[in-house]
Design a protein that fits this description.
There is one protein chain. This protein has 319 residues and is mainly α. It is 65% helix and 4% strand. The chain is built from ten helices and four strands; from the N terminus they run αββββααααααααα. A hairpin with a 7-residue loop joins β2 and β3. The longest helix has 31 residues. The protein is elongated, with a radius of gyration of 43 Å.
Amino acid sequence: MLQISLQNDTLLKQLHQAVETKSHGTTPADRKLIQSDTSGLSHVTKQQPVKNQETPGKTFNIERKTIFSKQNADLQLDSIIPISAAQVELSEETLPQGLILPERPMFHERPDWVVGVFILALVLLATVRLFFNKYLNQLFHAVTNYSTSLRLFRERSVSLTHASFRLDLIFYFVFSIFVFQLFDHYQVAFQQPDFVTYLFILGIVTGYFALKRVVYFFTAILSESTSETSEFLYNMNIHNRVLGLFLIPVTLIIAFSSLQNPQMVVFTGLLICGGFYVLLLIRGAKILMTKHFSIFYLILYLCTLEILPLIFIYKMVLV
């Protein structure tokens, strides 16, 4: 043990001489012997074989530990051999590649044609808001106020035809988008592309309301109630125009929000459509009751022309 301790002291002296000679630039030293450590941790130097004096031919591998405290590390920084930049290799994974921006995943694909439909609807709404603002305010009052709707029906003018036509276009475009979103939400698949499916739905919606008007007029001729039917159809147009305006924010949220499951928004749109439909049925009953229409014929009239077509569409599409 005494000999081993003497050998350790000899190695310490050799190490100290190697550091001094390297710091003065006289002889080169092995860079692996000394490593900088400013955090107070220990480093293990390279194992050096040492000959045993008692038993020649055998060697011992002595592992030297050099412990630097924080204070000694600060004092000995000047004497430590600097490590060249060529010896330090940084992997490409640790370096940032270019400009890194925060990511926000989108859960649903948004087709480009939806943007075009919304732009067209908003442009039409802006023209109505700019040139026919008074008529637009009267429409909102006519939904809940029967006297306002009756005054609009009696004071129909050709100057409001452009506003009515634009609002009808908004209703057909937006309501068809909402129906398309309903089919997509409940995973009703079509074989055609999305835009072709939207055009098909737009044609079905337009044809449904056009056929509905034809059936109403034909029924009015048979029942000799042309004036009452015309007033009811006018109120139906008023409710559809306002419904199209209410569905614009709902369809925009469904189309462009980052909601993973927009079920609540879809239910909100369905409630809006159901509320306007109930208001329309109440308005139709009020119109027929003021004309002394029979309650039996009133129920038969509304059930035949309103409820049965909806049940047929539900059975044909969703079942």
